[in-house]
Amino acid sequence: MYCGRFAPSPTGPLHFGSLVAAVASWLDARAHGGRWLVRIEDVDEPRCRAEWADAILRTLERLGLHWDGAVVRQSGRKELYHAALERLRQAGLAYPCGCTRREAAGRYPGTCRAGLPPGRAPRAWRFRVPAGRIGFQDRWQGWFEQDVEAEAGDFILLRADGFFAYQLAVVVDDAAQGVTHVVRGADLLDSTPRQLLLQRALGYPRPAYLHHPVATDGEGRKLSKQNRAPALDPARDRENLLAALAFLGLAPPDDLCGAELLAWARGQWVPRLHSLGV
Ligand code: GLU
Q: Most CB within 10 Å of its CB: which of 24, 41, 122, 215?
């Protein structure tokens, strides 16, 4: 049974880039007769706000993107992340790191891998990345692989400020919620190999992945809250939905709106993927 999800981080209101991810994941789930969950990824609590989470949910409702079950919030799930970290630690796959952020900027060189250097206190916990390449067949992008050890090094699981890292939380939640299909923007493509390694280490099943192209601004930068992408104008719901569908390659007939528009798009989604040869 297909189970998909939309997992926004409430670091701002919904913008066009995240609307595309919401629409793509909704369409893929509904076209497959599957469930579609919404998970608020507020694990990075200092950057998130409850008002933004509420605003995102209201926008989804207004657009007719209705979800199944209760909305899950990562800020309330720390015990699950803790238990996963503990399992990794017991398996020798997580270790404490005493480096400061500045010392560990970029690819982590493995300074604390063999034990904390003398005089260092543990600050964060890292995953012991195995050597070699790991890859997967993306439903839109095709084959993608990475040498995580060479490109990222041992990455953070629990941050020095006490918050869990996105990479761990997302893997634990996708497994705990029974997510079978992940549909999200291609800006997350190079996070996926790290997530595959964590799934493997924790014995979780691997979902199928589809990374759609991401919307960019006039200068080719990804639309994001960091780049101050504008919030969606509530007075332009139909236009925004049409623009998201057009971005995904769907051109609905003029006379459709609201639920009819989404029902039409749901019927076109699988043919659209086939037309891309994916
Ligand atoms: N929370 C992430 C974001 O808003 C998305 C995570 C995911 O879909 O795996 O960028």
A: 24
- Map out the domains of the chain as residue ranges: 1-74+219-278, 77-214
pLDDT digits (tens, 9 = 90+) for 204-233: 999 999 999 998 876 777 777 666 678 898
20 lines ligand 1 (CB under 6 A): no
Does 1-74+219-278 carry CATH code 3.30.43.10?
no
C-alpha 174 to ligand 1 mean position (Å) = 11
Q: Check if 1-74+219-278 and 77-214 are the same fold.
A: yes
> Which helix (H) or strand (E) is 200 found in, with range?
helix 192-202
Of 5, 13, 18, 11, which is closest to residue 244 (Cα–Cα)? 18
CA distance readout (Å), 46 to 7, 11, 162, 210: 18, 9, 11, 29
Q: Please tell me the distance from the alpha carbon of residue 16 to that of residue 220, in angstroms, as a whole number.
A: 14
Selected catalytic residue, list 225, 248, 261, 273: 225
- pLDDT tens for 95-132 read 999 998 888 888 999 999 999 999 999 999 999 999 99
